[in-house]
Amino acid sequence: MPTNMISGTLIPNVLAIFLFVVALFVSFRALYIFSQTRSPRLFILGLSLGVIALTALADLIASNLTSITLNTDWFLYIGQSVSFLFILLSLVNSDDVYLNRLMRVHVLISVVLVALLVLSPTLPAFSNVAIKTILSGSRSVICFGIFFSYISAFMNKQTRFSLLMSIAFMLIAFGYLMIAQQYFVANADLFDNIGDITRMLGLCVLLLAVVGG
Amino acid sequence: MNQDGTSNPPFRDIGKEQMELAKQLMQVVATVRHVDELFQWVAGACVQHFNIQLVQLWSNQVNPEGRLTPQLRTIAHKDPSLPEQVAASTQMASLVQYIMNSRRSYRAQAVESLFPSFQTILLKRYGLYYCGACFTSKNVYLPPVERMFAYDQLPTPLTMVVLFFVRQISQVELLAAMNMTLEQALTLAESSGLLTNTGYSGNLQMPGYMPNMQTPGYSPNMQQMPITPQVPMPGYSPNMQQTPITPQMPMPGYSPNMQQPVTPQVPTPDVVPALELLIPRRKQDADLMLSSNPFANKAVIADKKARRLHGAIDGHTNIVGLCAATGMSIKEVHIALQSLLIQQYIEIYEPGGRLVKNSPFFKDM
């Protein structure tokens, strides 16, 4: 097998598997604790990471299954953007009524996202780079927003958890930023791989925050 | 429909009844010779006008040694078949003692939370489902009970408790009306010379009384809920639903031309509805997922009953509804709520939506 083919698919596949495992683990833990504490923030986190895990799985399958065409990029970009957005929205306000309402909206939107996944065999590919760039880049913007939320929390109260989460989302945000730039540079694979590796580091720190923060 | 299967007449307009009673009080006070005659009339009038099943007037009485004990001055009841041992028992005297110590009034609440189970069964048999209390004290002396061989009893600083028993607690302004009636009666009694300005001047000893005592939980057999201490309300609105009372209605019968203008002396602390009517709401930890790690074990509610109750809280259901939803007794719910409050998982609200900050039901609020 040619070396460039190995490196071309290896890193994205490893990232997809790693993202799937980490996101699914955190999602299950969050939903389990939600069942006991009934905290809407935990539900939103659990559902968001569940959807993100699904996007990773869909991307992995679509990349390696060549017999049928699955345009999962719509679900990938929109699903991840929306999931990160709901995480951000759950952090900006702690009012019980607001969070419960957000939780209900999140459930409805997630159903629509799953419909997007189910329709991926029939959805068209991205017609132009602009749409892809906007959808891809929005993930970076939202993750930077989450980073700023955690860094503000760390400034108010210095805890290991908030520090680790801010580092994690900073790395994830920069990773998405690198990926978004691949559409404008000649060496797209380099930016893509760097972005993926940065995201993997971010996921490692996220896992560390959840387990030991 | 009541718990015993009987039905009640339509709700009375408490405001109108209270005004009618006040008018009659002005006429009656001029005809009585002793303050106990006035108390007897007031008790009977409250039973008749406010649809109360049983009214007891208690006061503190001092003996020559300076020891204060609660004494039943008068009693009135609607049901003539009510036995004396049910109408006035040692448990009631203990309850009155507690109320005098706490120096606060109490809205009507279920008798299960105030009396032992055997007493509760007896009370309910005669339609006495809920019990409330009015407390008052004045800077005058109350003559001893008029009877033979009472020569050793001295006028005592006026401290009175009115215990009242009702079938249902829907009329939330009943306590206000009772307090106002009592205050009016005492004011008129004072102005008519039925109360004295001299009496026992030694040191008073009241068992269990501490001058700075807060509101400890009353527990007749250490297995029931504390009483809800609440305070007299200076006025009431006849159209009040479940909102805090505002002192707007003038005192019926007050005349600016009276020689001794009177001002009801009522304290002004907050009034908290009965425990059963309070509504718990979940309190979101603002730091959760930001500064505090929700995946740490401390985020989980350890107590199983508290966790079940926390899951059932929807921000709209009151404590009675939560008891039904969870299948827990009101005592278990109270203990679970106390635990959740201490861990700051919930807040308690009145039916009107006001946050309860200092409830005597719950510690560490």
Tag the structure with descriptive keywords:
A: 213 residues; mainly alpha; 2 domains; globular; B: 365 residues; alpha+beta; Beta-Lactamase; Arc Repressor Mutant, subunit A; five-stranded antiparallel sheet; two-stranded antiparallel ribbon; 9 helices; 29% helix; elongated
What features would you describe in this structure?
The complex is a heterodimer of chains A (213) and B (365). Chain A has helices at residues 3-37, 40-64, 73-92, 96-118, 129-156, 160-181, 188-212. Chain A is mainly α. Chain A folds into two domains: 1-123; 126-213, no CATH class. Chain A has seven helices and no strands. Chain B has 365 residues and is α+β, with helices and mostly antiparallel strands. In chain B, the strands form two sheets. A five-stranded antiparallel β-sheet of chain B has the order 2-1-5-4-3. Chain B is elongated and about 75 Å long. The model of chain B is unreliable at 205-270 (pLDDT under 50). Chain A binds chain B through residues 29-30, 33, 36-42, 45, 90-91, 94-96, 99, 149-150, 153-154, 156-157, 159, 161-162, 209-211, 213, and chain B through 281-296, 299-301, 307, 310-311, 315.
